[in-house]
Specification:
This protein is an alpha/beta fold and 304 residues long. The protein has seven helices and ten strands. The chain has helices at 2-51, 76-91, 125-131, 169-175, 193-201, 245-253, 273-286, and strands spanning 59-64, 96-100, 113-114, 137-138, 146-150, 179-183, 206-217, 220-231, 258-261, 267-272. Strands 4-5-2-1-6-10-9 form a seven-stranded mixed β-sheet. The chain has a three-stranded mixed β-sheet with strand order 3-7-8. A hairpin with a 7-residue loop joins strand 4 and strand 5. Helix 1 packs parallel to helix 2 (76-91), helix 5 packs across helix 7 (273-286) and helix 6 crosses helix 7 (273-286). The N and C termini lie far apart (94 Å).
Amino acid sequence: MDNIFFNFKEFNLELNYLVCIILYIIIVICLYSINMNIKEFEKEFLINFKKIKINKNKNIYITSNLSGISKIRIRKEQKISLIYKCLTQIMGKNSTIFVPTATLNLCNTKIPFDLDNTPSHEMGPFAEFIRNNKKSIRSLHPFWSICGVGNNAKFLRHTSKHAYGYGSPWSKMLDLDFLQVNIGIHPSKAVTLVHHIETIIGVPYRYNKLFRHKVKYNNKFYHDDFVQSVFFNEVDSKKKIKLNEHFFKILKDQKKLHYSKLQNGLDMWSFKMRDFFKVATELFKKDMYTYLENKPKFNKISNY
């Protein structure tokens, strides 16, 4: 009987030892798999960034929806960090990356805008990654700010108090010949530059509304005036059902809209902001309602 119990204990020890070895092998395989996932992730992004010409530009404005890579077995924070690494690697020295850090949710509220700490609203995790970079610079506008890192980010310290128009971040990006990059979201659904053009053209269905809002800048709270282009309340202005697709159809026909698709199905596009500006401006000149589904009725106009 003693021998039986002794053998049983010895068997348990051997079993535990075997389990430990199996667990160790599983951990090693998982770590190797993760490492391979990271290398493949980087390689694929570098290849596709080249396909959309990022490597030929030093200044980019990037807007993104990264839900398409959510199932890749790499931590979310690491994916974003790897994308940033790939961008800086392919763009080289003296490059600049701008992202949208808008906070339109603060409009018509008493919530102060803290330039350093107010998070962007629904602009995506990559935008927040850039905003939280210690070297990032953010333009001072409580509703439509732009944040950037790199060689030309310093220009964001000296922008107008209008969200769009001359002296705004959009104006400066055009001056610096920025490339817009859209990852995971078609440009027709994310091209705020069109509102800058509407402001310059002076479309009749929008007006420049003055907002007085509390902001925190250089550790001081104060109220200041800011301007945002908005629709007239009583004008029935309906955006095109297909949004800005007609602009991008022209860009595509001109071979100025670059496109690539990752193996996991994530789409990405790029285009020169100057090219979009030229195409859209010409269409607005021909038809000042080109952004809308139909010409609105101006029976009654109220600004407030």
